[in-house]
Specification:
The chain is built from 5 helices and 2 strands, in the order βαααααβ. The protein is mainly α. The protein has one domain: Orthogonal Bundle (434 Repressor (Amino-terminal Domain)), CATH 1.10.260.40. It is globular, with a radius of gyration of 14 Å.
């Protein structure tokens, strides 16, 4: 998937556990785990906002877009 969610990196930088984040923002640990592992297919703005507030960061700190390059036929 070309959009990478960097929750794990942000948690490490802030010395915070996924459980602590879950308790702060009121999102289940299971749903945060799905987001953290990159298995989420969508993120609600309200969830993104809550994560950003709890981690004192911007959405761009949590999300990264990577181009996917198709193989060119020769």
């Amino acid at each position: 998937m070309p959009i990478i969610v960097k929750v794990d990196e942000m948690l490490h930088e802030r010395r915070m556990t996924l459980t602590e984040l879950s308790e702060r923002i009121g999102i289940t640990l299971a749903n945060l785990s799905i987001l953290k592992t990159g298995k989420a297919r969508a993120v609600r703005f309200s969830t993104l906002e809550a994560i950003c507030e709890a981690m004192e960061c911007q959405p761009g700190d949590l999300l990264e877009f990577r181009h996917t390059h198709e193989k060119e036929e020769i």
